Amino acid sequence: MKTGVRALGIAESYRGDQSTLAGVVVRASRVVDGFVFGTCTVGGSDATETVVSLVDRLDREDVRYVLVSGIAPAWFNIVDLPAVHEAVDRPVVAVTYEDSPGLAAAIREAFDGEARERRLAVYRRQPDRERVTVNDETVFVRAVGVEAGEAADVVRGFTPEGGRPEPLRVARLAARGADAVSVGDE
Fold first, then answer.
1. Neighbours of 120 (CB within 10 A)
2. What Rg do the C-alpha atoms of the chain give, in angstroms?
3. What gap in Å lies between CA 103 and CA 151, rounded to an integer?
4. How far apart are CA 167 and CA 147, in angstroms?
5. I need a surface site. Which of 27, 87, 101, 173 has the fewest CB within 10 A?
6. Average pLDDT over residues 22-37
7. Please, which residues bridge with residue 90 across strands?
8. Class of the domain covering 6-179
9. What pTM, to 2 d.p., does this model score?
């Protein structure tokens, strides 16, 4: 991957009833090239809108890929990857770090009625997870707007060590830092 290729990594940190989402633009050369922040509701249904808003507010045509840390931030506030892809017109790749049977059973257990059905409908629209080996670690990747092989190459290309792509690692740190500042302001 060319060193100037950019990805926007989006990760979260949450406290209370709101989750901070941080977006960080990182070049494949590992140079951080921009930040953006937003919030979504813990247990809500606004994560997809927040992710799209982060991309829109950045207004960076040079960002080739959007990487999302998982699809269920903020206690099952499901990110609809196909909807994000359609809205931002670039590949969207979600990365998770643990093998699991999926979220359907947990959603059924945690929610009732319309809240359950809405989450399950969004969850069912998501592509299947693909197992990807990165630096002797295993991650799980869902991709929209890009073939599975290219998505795996993107994840590997943005992961200099360990199993967490640099845009997602830095975004997680930024989200935690933003949460720490907001807690200190209270």
1. 16
2. 16
3. 22
4. 20
5. 101
6. 97
7. none
8. alpha beta
9. 0.95
